[in-house]
Design goal:
By secondary structure, the chain is α/β, with parallel strands linked by helices. The chain is about 40% helix and about 20% strand. It is globular. It starts with a helix and ends with a helix.
């Protein structure tokens, strides 16, 4: 996904002279063709993420469209003030390409795990938050990002993830995509974001074998949230399940439940949020290992849905 994203930066730069790239101590050969062809639009700074954000914001104020790139936690934890004041306050078109969203950097431990990034970024006024489900969707998003007016936080997965998106479903920032539609009048609806959409689709297949025909709705844009999609699917649902690779407090599930509480009140369906707990991980390993630890694998998602259905009926 990262390669697809950065390759698109180069493509966009060839199409639009306003596009520039700003990196933070990344691989020497990164976007080498762009560096060679457009040396005045390719910048690699040191380990100074606050400065990277400040540079990008300054460029945006001068009419450029900067795509800045570093590890997710280096943006969201080290440069939060600069993102808030330099980018969001001025509502400038800075794109923060953030490597390793969620549990991607599992071998490196809690300092590198961007577990709270969705919550903190969606709390900022004017910030758009995007988590694509695969590399092909990332390409479609990047093309759409060029003309978006404000700042965007772009959450990248590890790469090599299965491609589950389809071009015929289209892509528009702020518009959710139905990945699987139930034939039931009152279905279970899985609302997901990022690569959890893949796991939710697999979980839906497992549920089908138990007689549960689930709808899966992919929210690549967490903010602005597609409120119409949330309400349209929730009104008829017997159960809404949110699935995310981030902490529950303030995350994607919170965004969905905010809408349900505000708009449906006592008429809202049963809700189950599947997310990371309110703690730093003490585990190391691979991303999939931590999925298992925190209940984010497809079988665990399916089991959590069954248990919630049993409880709701009882």
């Amino acid at each position: 996904m990262r390669k697809a994203c950065l390759d698109r930066v180069y493509k966009l730069a060839k199409e639009d002279p306003r596009v520039v790239f700003v990196g933070s101590d990344l691989s020497p050969g990164l976007l080498g063709e762009m560096k060679s062809e457009m040396p005045d639009r390719w910048f690699m700074e040191g380990i100074a993420e606050q400065n990277v954000v400040g540079i990008a914001a300054g460029m945006a104020l001068e009419g450029l469209i900067p795509y800045a790139n570093t590890i997710a936690t280096f943006f969201t934890r080290r440069a939060y003030e600069q993102i808030a004041v330099d980018c969001c306050l001025h509502n400038v078109p800075v794109r923060l390409i953030s490597n390793g969203g969620g549990l991607v950097y599992a071998p490196l431990g809690p300092t590198h795990l961007a577990i709270e990034d969705i919550a903190t970024m969606r709390a900022l006024p004017n910030m758009t938050v995007v988590a694509c489900c695969d590399a092909e969707e990332m390409k479609r998003f990047m093309d759409a990002s060029l003309h978006w007016k404000g700042p965007i936080y772009i959450r990248l997965a590890k790469g090599g993830d299965p491609v589950v998106s389809r071009p015929e479903r289209g892509f528009e920032i702020g518009k959710a995509i139905v990945m699987r539609e139930s034939s039931e009048a009152s279905p279970v609806v899985l609302m997901t974001t990022g690569v959890m959409t893949t796991n939710a689709l697999q979980a839906a297949k497992m549920l089908e074998s138990d007689g549960v025909d689930a709808t899966v709705v992919h929210f690549h844009t967490i903010k602005p949230l597609d409120v119409a999609a949330v309400l349209g699917h929730a009104r008829a649902a017997r159960l809404v399940v949110t699935v995310e690779e981030g902490i529950a407090i303030g995350g994607f599930g919170s965004a969905v439940t905010d809408v349900l509480v505000d708009q449906l009140g006592p008429g809202m369906p049963h809700v189950k949020r599947i997310a990371l707990p309110d703690s730093f991980t003490k585990n190391y390993g691979l991303q999939n290992d931590l999925f298992e630890v925190f209940g984010l694998t497809p079988p665990q998602i399916a089991r959590a849905v069954r248990e919630k259905l049993d409880h709701a009926v009882a």
